[in-house]
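Many introductory courses stop at the sequence. We go one step further.
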Amino acid sequence: MNNQTKKFFIYTRKSTDDKDRQVRSIADQLSELKELALKEQLEVVDVFVEKQTAKIPGRPVFNEMIARMEAGEATGILAWHPDRLARNSVDGGKIIYLVDTGVISEMKFPTFWFDPTPQGKFMLSIAFSQSKYYVDNLSENIKRGKRNKVKDGIWPQMSPLGYINKGGKIVVDENIAPLIKKTFEAYSSGSFTLRELRDKFNALGLKRKSGKELAVSNYQKLLKNPIYTGLMLYNGEIFEGKHEPIITKKLFDSVQEVMSRKSKPKSRGLKDYLYRGFFRCGECGCFITTEQQKGHNYLRCTKRKNPCEQKYVREELITFQIQEEIKKVSLPLDWLSWMIEENRKDQSSEIQSSTLFADNLKTDISLLEIKIEKLMTAYLESALSLEEYRDAKNALVAAKQLLKEKLSAFEQKANNRFELTEKFLKYNMELANDRTNEENTHLFKKVGSNFLIKDRTVLFEPRGAWKTLSDSEFFGGNALVSRLRRDPISGSNADFQFWRKGRDSNPRGVLPPGTLAVCWFQPLTHLSLMPNRC
């Protein structure tokens, strides 16, 4: 059979992947292949053009060409190189099988020799294997490059909503970032469901980069993405990013807490009683359950372990007792306002001395860096031997690392005690406000643990600062608490000696007079009546 009677398909391919940037364009491939067909006097039945990667099977144009060859429309293929036909083992094996069965009798390439002999098929299989190896190796190199970028604090993928790609990095999108921040703040309040959040912020113009509206699942994914705090979650691992955060880590953690609380599955068929699973029996340790009788909710022991003599108790009585217990560990609002202000004054004074301490550390670090550079110069000028240079440098680098760790630890902990104090005071202020029964229950869980009901009375163990309040003379019995609340002026200094327990165990200088450390929790009638020393 002569070449004039042989029918060929021309197949050209170029994907949009980075790996094919150096491959000739479709037009260049067609030009060379048509010139080859004219030179070899080949009959071209049809031309196939595909713009898709060949690293995975399933290319529609390639599959159509193979189907038409199996139907007998052509017996040969013209392509620029074997890697245009296949870069995966499935498509490569298919072509070799068709050569074995005679469906494909000939293939011609401007850059590769082939004939349907054992040697030719061997060379073709090597060409396909090399193409697959190139794709696999390139994929691994890309993954390695991304891992290195993320270790350097650079996000290696398309920027998330709220950021844009610029200069190989991600930078804050000034138009979208404020909406992202408001989204986190709104959800952290606990007042919105994801569906309500979607409706609210879609209406404000928060959209995908494609312009399409965000779905509920998009908001859930957005709220779980730590990249907005400056951290990057990549392949299940957290990395520190060099990009500017949009929200604080504290706000992000608050959102996760709200999401976790709202995502807890509710048992089907069970009524949503206020104290379900909240209390245990103070006599036998079984759970307290709730029943509804004649329009009222009653709490009782389930009595599943041992005989128990505890009786029913009305839900309203338990709610009243919880409110009273919360009052016992809450401070008057005027005291709280004054204490918060004093704490902030202390913090401002502390910041001044902290800044000086941090600046001194940074200066010491800079001096060590200069010494290391001078050592290098001395070694290059042969003033020091290699061994002397290494010993001296190792000592300086070790000293520099210790100073860096000291600076990092100091910056992290410098204002921690003031933040904890303000958090406690603001939470105490929240206790003093009016709340719903559900909010009371949530706050009560923060105040204590091991909640029991015995003899129709609520029992619990205060935790943390609340335990300190409960154990101190400041709350030395209901009579004292009531007296202080009625007439704070009559409260002697002795009543508050507990709150004057001094200062930080690691003082950094004498605090100025009038700080919270000196006048801790002193009772007030009015700020104008405060002594000068406070």
